[in-house]
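PROTEIN DESIGN WORKSHEET
SECTION A - STRUCTURE
LENGTH: 522
TOKENS:
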């Protein structure tokens, strides 16, 4: 369910609520809540994290306009609307100019996100000096993305960097007015959705704990009377400036939380961004399509040549940006797992296409040799364990096979033998991809591969694999030592969640189950 990334604290509160509601009315209430949750979960899987953040910020602006109209905020709704217009227009114009000057691809989702963040932390304009403040903040935010970038990757959170510089140049600091009691509920609820989508709960949690401890603040102060919630959920979690792994993210969150004790939040974040940059992958690549190849009924491989060797671990993923016309609600950015191995000369991604797919997928499908796409931010912890003696089970469904292609190709090229059993499930025999790598892994490394077709009405007469969904019986037959193995699960969300529950019921410890972020959902 959608609450899973929020872990035990939130699930426990919800459980107590459900337990306190009795009778038929209570059952109807709880059923309604679960129904709403399922709708939210389904909707969130259909939009990108950038688009979710944009919608969240727009909703906060709507709440702010309504609250100010009723006198609950210390400014008029008209002043706020004017400020939003000035910031959005200034950011758009500045970004367009910088993009043309540096001949760089642009993403206007991030432009609007930055403009709305600034509108929620800068007091709305009521005088000419306030207008100059807004304009300079917008200009500096956009400039930081292009000028203060190394390897085409910006270092600082644009909004935080701009208000730090405006404080130094104009001697005018931000008010962080969004951190008021009246805005706390929408900030918290929307923030939890963002944490769920981005899988950054532990980053946010670590920051809030550390900052609360050093501020000697109560939970009431943190949640109602400070900007820390908005800062943590929206600004601290910006994908481009966050370290790649959970441990590093928690370290980063703790550091920024500690710095907020000594500095304003924007200064703490800028200093934290420097730390994050030093410990994170720094490449942002403009890649040209070298080859596009159909590998399955609806799946294509895209191969890209790189000027320099890209360092990454098998199973990791990157953010891909493709500017295109008529962008739909899912935006112009995606996360795709690298199906290539670091031992190969090309970067490869496997992409599944649907006739009714997003505008991004349609634009990507139309890419030809030589066309360019931006790739950045290598990240992900769905990687091989360092202990080579650890016994492994890979479970792949559909497009979820891509990280396993990367891992197995790496093991083949390194001639590294490990105890691995692969379960690969598809609806039809024609849907299986990367069989060359899987077959070679069987022959050269002794890896066991179990193919299974889920559609019983579409099984070829000469089929030698399994038929039906992977269940307890199949697992017990093929993996008699399952409690000793580390399970890697990658595929559609429903398949992964169902399989994880099956493993837990079989007695496989939770710590021995690794679930891919499956960034296609993001």
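SECTION B - SEQUENCE
RESIDUE ASSIGNMENT:
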């Amino acid at each position: 369910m959608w609450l899973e990334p929020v872990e035990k604290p939130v699930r426990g509160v919800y459980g107590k609520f459900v337990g306190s509601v009795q009778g038929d009315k209570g059952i109807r209430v709880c059923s309604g809540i679960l129904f709403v949750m399922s709708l939210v979960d389904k909707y969130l899987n259909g939009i990108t994290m950038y688009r979710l953040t944009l919608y969240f910020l727009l909703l906060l602006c709507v709440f702010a306009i309504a609250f100010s109209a009723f006198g609950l905020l210390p400014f008029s709704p008209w002043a706020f609307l004017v400020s939003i217009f000035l910031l959005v227009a200034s950011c758009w114009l500045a970004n367009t100019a910088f993009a043309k000057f540096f001949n760089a691809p642009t993403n206007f989702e991030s432009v609007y996100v930055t403009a709305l963040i600034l509108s929620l932390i800068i007091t709305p304009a009521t005088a000419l000096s306030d207008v100059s403040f807004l304009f300079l903040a917008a200009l500096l935010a956009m400039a930081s993305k292009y000028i203060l970038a190394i390897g085409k990757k910006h270092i600082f959170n644009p909004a935080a960097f701009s208000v730090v510089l405006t404080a130094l140049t104009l001697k005018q600091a931000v008010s962080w007015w969004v951190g008021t009691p009246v805005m706390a509920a929408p900030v918290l609820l929307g923030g939890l959705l963002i944490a769920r989508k981005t899988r950054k709960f532990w980053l946010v949690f670590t920051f809030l704990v550390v900052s609360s401890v050093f501020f000697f603040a109560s939970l009431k102060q943190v949640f109602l009377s400070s900007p820390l919630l908005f800062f943590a959920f929206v600004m601290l979690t910006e994908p481009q400036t966050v370290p790649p792994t959970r441990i590093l993210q928690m370290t980063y969150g703790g550091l920024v939380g500690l710095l907020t004790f000594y500095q304003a939040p924007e200064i703490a974040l800028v200093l934290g961004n420097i730390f994050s940059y030093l410990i994170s992958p720094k490449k942002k690549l403009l890649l040209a399509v070298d080859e596009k190849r159909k590998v399955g009924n609806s799946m294509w491989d895209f191969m890209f040549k790189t000027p320099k060797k890209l360092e990454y671990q098998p199973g990791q993923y990157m953010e891909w940006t493709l500017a295109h016309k008529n962008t739909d609600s899912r935006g112009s950015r995606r996360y795709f797992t690298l199906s290539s191995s670091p031992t190969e000369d090309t970067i490869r991604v496997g992409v599944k296409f649907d006739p009714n797919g997003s505008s991004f997928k349609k634009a990507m499908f139309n890419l030809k040799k030589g066309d360019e796409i931006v790739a950045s931010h290598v990240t992900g912890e769905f990687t091989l364990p360092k202990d080579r003696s650890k016994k492994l089970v890979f479970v792949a469904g559909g497009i979820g096979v891509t990280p396993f292609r990367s891992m197995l190709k790496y093991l083949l090229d390194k001639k590294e033998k490990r105890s691995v059993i692969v379960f690969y499930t598809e609806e039809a025999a024609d849907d299986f991809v990367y069989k060359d790598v899987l077959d070679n892994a069987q022959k050269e490394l002794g890896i066991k591969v179990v193919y299974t077709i889920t559609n019983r009405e579409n099984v070829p007469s000469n089929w030698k694999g399994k038929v039906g969904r992977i269940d307890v019986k199949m697992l017990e037959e093929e993996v008699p030592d399952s409690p000793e193995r580390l399970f890697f699960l990658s595929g559609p969300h429903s398949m992964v969640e169902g399989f994880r529950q099956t493993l837990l019921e079989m007695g496989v410890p939770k710590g021995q189950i690794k679930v891919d972020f499956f960034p296609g959902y993001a």
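SECTION C - NOTES
Residues 4-44 form one domain.
Residues 1-22 have pLDDT under 50 and may be disordered.
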